[in-house]
C-alpha cells in the first residue's frame, strides 16, 4: 500500500508542475500577444501617417511622397491593421488559457489563426521591404532613382515601420511555437 500511495503523490506533483508550466506558458503568450499588437498597430499608424512634400523651383510646384502612392505600402498598412485587430481579439482566448488549463481546442484554433496571420503579416512586410529597398537604393536598369536623398523623413518613417512589423513576425513565430509546446505537454 505504501508504494501505491507514493506513486499517487509523485503523479499529483507531476501534474501540479505541468499545470504550473502551462500557466507560465499561457502568461508568456498573453504578454507576447500584447507586444505584437503594439508593434503591428504602431507600424500601421506610422506608415499610414507618412507624408512628405518638397518644393520644386517655385512654391506652386511640389513633389509629394505618401504611403498611398504605392499599393505595396497600402497593403502593408492593411495587413498590419488586420493582424493588430486579430491580436486584440485573441487576447480573450489567451486569457482563458491562463485561467483554465484544459483548453486544447482553443489552442488548436489559435495556432491555425496565428499561422494565417503570420502569412498575411509576412507578405505585407516583405512587399513593403521591396519598395523600401528601391526607395533607398533605386534600380539603374529600370531608371528608378533612389528617392531617400530627397525624401529623408519619408524614408526614415517607412523603414521604422518595417522594423516594427518584422519584430511582430518574429513574435508570431514564437507564439506558434509556444502554443505547440503547450499542446504537446498536455498529451
Automatic annotation (TrEMBL):
Highest taxon, organism lineage: Eukaryota
Pfam families: CASP_dom (PF04535)
Keyword Transmembrane on entry: yes
UniProt keywords, alphabetically: Cell membrane, Membrane, Transmembrane, Transmembrane helix
Parts of the chain that traverse the membrane: 30-50, 70-96, 108-135, 162-183
GO CC annotations, alphabetized: plasma membrane
Compartment list: Cell membrane
Membrane topology: Multi-pass membrane protein
Span of domain Casparian strip membrane protein: 23-170
InterPro entries in the record: CASP/CASPL, CASP_dom, CASPL
Signal peptide per UniProt: none
Presence of keyword Transmembrane: yes
The protein's assembly and partners: Homodimer and heterodimers.
Family: Belongs to the Casparian strip membrane proteins (CASP) family.
The protein's name in its UniProt record: CASP-like protein
Naturally occurring in which organism (per UniProt): Capsella rubella
Amino acid at each position: 500500500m505504501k508504494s501505491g500511495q507514493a506513486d499517487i503523490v509523485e503523479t499529483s506533483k507531476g501534474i501540479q508542475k505541468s499545470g504550473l508550466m502551462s500557466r507560465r506558458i499561457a502568461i508568456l503568450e498573453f504578454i507576447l500577444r500584447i507586444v505584437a499588437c503594439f508593434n503591428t498597430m504602431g507600424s500601421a499608424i506610422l506608415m499610414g501617417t507618412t507624408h512628405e512634400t518638397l518644393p520644386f523651383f517655385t512654391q506652386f510646384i511640389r513633389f509629394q511622397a505618401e504611403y498611398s502612392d504605392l499599393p505595396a505600402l497600402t497593403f502593408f498598412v492593411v495587413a498590419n491593421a488586420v493582424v493588430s485587430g486579430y491580436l486584440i481579439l485573441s487576447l480573450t482566448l489567451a486569457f482563458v488559457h491562463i485561467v483554465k488549463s484544459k483548453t486544447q481546442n482553443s489552442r488548436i484554433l489559435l495556432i491555425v489563426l496565428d499561422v494565417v496571420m503570420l502569412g498575411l503579416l509576412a507578405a505585407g512586410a516583405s512587399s513593403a521591404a521591396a519598395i523600401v529597398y528601391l526607395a533607398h537604393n533605386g534600380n539603374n536598369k529600370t531608371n528608378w532613382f533612389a528617392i531617400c536623398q530627397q525624401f529623408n523623413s519619408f524614408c526614415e518613417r517607412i523603414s521604422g515601420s518595417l522594423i516594427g512589423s518584422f519584430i511582430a513576425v518574429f513574435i508570431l513565430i514564437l507564439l506558434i511555437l509556444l502554443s505547440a509546446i503547450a499542446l504537446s505537454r498536455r498529451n
